[in-house]
Write a structure and sequence with these properties.
Strand order of the largest sheet of chain B: 2-1-3-4-5
CATH class of chain B: Alpha Beta
Radius of gyration of chain A: 16 Å
Strand content of chain B: 15-25%
Number of helices of chain B: 5
Largest sheet of chain A: none
CATH architecture of chain B: 3-Layer(aba) Sandwich
CATH topology of chain A: Four Helix Bundle (Hemerythrin (Met), subunit A)
Helix content of chain A: over 70%
CATH architecture of chain A: Up-down Bundle
CATH superfamily of chain A: HPT domain
CATH superfamily of chain B: Response regulator
Number of domains of chain B: 1
Number of domains of chain A: 1
Oligomer: heterodimer
Helix content of chain B: 40-55%
Number of strands of chain A: 0
Strand content of chain A: under 5%
Number of helices of chain A: 6
Largest interface: A-B, 25 and 31 residues
Structural class of chain B: alpha/beta
Order of helices and strands of chain A: HHHHHH
Order of helices and strands of chain B: EHEHEHEHEH
CATH topology of chain B: Rossmann fold
Largest sheet of chain B: 5 strands, parallel
Shape of chain A: globular
Distance between the termini of chain B: 6 Å
């Protein structure tokens, strides 16, 4: 990794670590009052998309993938009614956040996925599936077609 | 008009991302680049000097990129400004919202400098700045 890229990576990671602390506080508030504060899942998803967007730009694919799963689970959060399901969401999001934070703190220039991370990703995917699955996304080509169709 | 005369505002709540986008734009010959960390701050900048183009992230507080786009399209002084959304947001529903609101170009993260350059120039051509 070039010194320039390494410096940039450090800057990004320092900034994203601040975002992760923000997300931690959000989860603590939801835990303190699950039904009253479940709207705050939206804030969590916003933090996760900020981390995902930056991580994907830096080719930190493992962090980006976990942040993406956290984002999708958090998007489902405000619509969850049962207390047990809210708890399930919160638990999954703590797992996602802890993994993202670990990835940011120990990036080491590597985006390799460990066996533990693979197990966690599978668990997050299962949680997301139980909540109805991820939202439909569009490819860059399709976005292009949508833009040209509109204009 | 040459790139050095074009006025741009880069909007992203991640400072390091703003720096990266500005570096890419400078490498393309753009010089008049301002930056903001959210839509509200960008609107204040536009009131001081109307830019030719904004390159904007989606998810920010207190004003998101989509809210900024909608606001700009309702005002006579900003409705013709080229708008490029630069985001990791790729859900169909959200992309459709941006298209309906009048976004000129849409860049998905991760992006390469070449893609960013092409989309920015494409938006400027569409708005007849070039």
């Amino acid at each position: 990794m070039s010194p320039n890229r390494e410096d940039k990576l450090k800057e990004f990671i320092t900034e994203l670590a601040g975002f992760a602390r923000d997300a931690e506080q959000v989860l603590q508030r939801i835990e303190s009052d699950p039904h009253g504060n479940k709207h705050e899942f939206s804030r969590f998803s916003e933090v996760m998309i900020a981390i995902r967007g930056t991580a994907v730009q830096l080719s930190l694919s493992s962090i980006a993938e976990v942040a993406g799963l956290g984002e999708e689970i958090a998007v489902k959060g405000p619509g969850v009614e049962k207390g047990s399901q809210i708890k399930k969401c919160v638990a999954a999001l703590w797992d996602a956040l802890t993994t993202v934070k670990y990835g940011l703190e120990n990036h080491g220039g590597s985006s390799e996925s460990s066996e533990e991370q693979d197990i966690l990703k599978n668990r997050l995917q299962a949680t997301l599936k139980s909540l109805g699955g991820a939202r439909e996304t569009v490819s860059a080509d399709e976005i292009e077609r949508l833009l040209r169709g509109q204009n | 008009m040459t790139p050095s005369e074009v006025s741009l505002i880069v909007i992203d709540d991640v400072q390091a991302m703003r720096v990266q986008v500005k570096e890419i734009l400078r490498a393309c010959g753009f010089e008049k680049i301002r930056s903001a960390s959210n839509g509200l701050e960008a609107l204040r900048m536009m009131a001081e000097e109307v830019p030719h183009i904004v390159i904007c992230d989606w998810h920010m507080a207190p004003m998101t990129g989509l809210e900024l786009l909608k606001e700009m399209r309702t005002k006579a002084e900003t409705k013709e400004i080229a708008f490029v959304m630069l985001t990791a947001e790729g859900t169909r529903e959200r992309v459709m919202e941006a298209v309906k609101a009048g976004v000129d170009e849409y860049i998905m993260k991760p992006f390469t400098p070449d893609v960013a350059r092409l989309k920015v120039i494409g938006a400027l051509i569409k708005r007849k700045v070039f």
